[in-house]
Specification:
Blueprint: H1 2-13, H2 17-24, H3 41-51, H4 55-60
Length: 64
C-alpha cells in the first residue's frame, strides 16, 4: 500500500521511484519493498517532504 501510494503521487508529478531514491539517499529498490518491509518513519518523512505531501498522505493514500 505504501509503495502504491508513493508511486501514484510520484507519477502525478512526473517523478520516478528511482529518482526519489537517488535524490533522498534511500537505497535503490527500497521503496518498492515497503509493502512487505515496514520502512522507518524518517525515510517515509523524507519521501513525503521530497514529494511535497504529508506522511499521512503517503500512509493512507489521500493525496492533498
Amino acid at each position: 500500500m505504501i509503495y502504491q501510494n508513493i508511486k501514484s503521487i510520484a507519477d502525478s508529478q512526473g517523478i520516478s521511484i528511482r529518482k526519489i531514491e537517488l535524490d533522498t539517499g534511500i537505497t535503490p529498490s527500497s521503496i518498492y519493498h515497503w509493502n512487505e518491509v515496514k520502512p522507518s518513519v524518517d525515510k517515509v518523512a523524507k519521501v513525503a517532504k521530497y514529494l511535497g505531501v504529508t506522511v499521512e498522505e503517503i500512509l493512507d493514500g489521500s493525496e492533498g
